[in-house]
Amino acid sequence: MNAMTGPDPTVDPQTPTMVVAFPEVTIRVAEILREMGYPDLADSLPTQRFYGRCRCKPGCSFVLTAPPDSSGSLMIWLEVSGETIGEVSLDPAGQIITNFDIGAPETLGVPTNWLDHGLTLLDPSADDR
Asked: Which of these, 86, 66, 88, lies nearest to 17 by C-alpha position?
């Protein structure tokens, strides 16, 4: 586990699923996807593995739900009451969520530091670094 980016499922088969790593956010994103007409994506998100935080730049808030560089050009804007609150990227076939970002977590009723907090919970020693 790397405190900045999270676990690497290719190295650690015990890597948590999204619903274990980030239960509140995962359930809420799945609800939004279902409401927007994407039930298959909504059903699969909780069981997808957590691949860490995107490493494109320091502080990137995208959560990887598939190996890095597996995204295609397809994406979905997450909307609540007509307001865009985030986005979901998909694999080239449009069948798997590869990463997502919640640009306005307060709209979902989750803390703005949900990702950092979750990474700390997954690796308590991260506070000591």
From this structure: 66
